[in-house]
Amino acid sequence: MIPLYHDFAGETVLVFGGGAVGSRKASRFADEARVVVVSPAFDDRLADLAEGDYGAVDLVRAAPDADAVRGWIERVEPALVVAATDDAAVNAAAEAAALDANALVNRTDVSAADRPGSRGARSVVVPATVEDDPVRVALSTGGASPALAKALRERIEADIDGAGAMAELSGSLRAELKDRGIAPEKRREAIRRVVRSEGVWKGLQKGDSYGRQEADSVIEEVLIE
Q1: Which of 28, 69, 71, 199 has the fewest CB atoms inside 10 Å of its own CB, making it the most exposed?
Q2: What is the mean pLDDT of residues 110-128?
Q3: SS3 62
Q4: Non-local CB neighbours of 80 within 8 Å, separated by 6+ positions
Q5: Is 212 helix (H, G, I), strand (E, B) or coil?
Q6: Computed from CA positions of residues 109, 38, 34, 31, in that sequence, does the dihedral angle turn out positive or negative?
């Protein structure tokens, strides 16, 4: 499996299962899509999501069996189905119905390591993520070690601190240099040095204007070479 990014704006994610796993998956998508959770009971965190600022999390109290999940998928028309119940038969039925409906599916009780090479193109894994908007890093161990994925996420969080501000700055500089008619080779070298400059990173920690000043100095050095 290879990592891809998917835009869920305006889409619906249907989650079967309101326990800890279903709650975690629902919260992962709550700020990016409408989320519908179908379950006979709900984790306390799900109730908080539904009543909080998100407003796009709908809790439906129902206990669909393997024969009923297909009807839910037909009614909701989700872009992604998350099968997160404690019933393997229900999860398998949800997976099959999702694939028949051309939706993506994330089945939580079967890891990629359990069935190497047997997953279809619409069967997906939701990785651990580290974010400093607009920078986002996705982590997966192929289902082999969720604990390692969590540990790596904690390490990377510190490493990418400030990466969002650097992305915004370098993107703006790249556009400005292009507008100035700077040759592509010089543009690439200038931006490369900016993103590798300790002075720029430290400047951004003080504020955007400090980072910009440091970046301008780096760029001028490149342009006069």
Answers
A1: 71
A2: 64
A3: coil
A4: 8, 11, 13, 14, 29, 33, 103, 104, 105, 106, 124
A5: helix
A6: negative
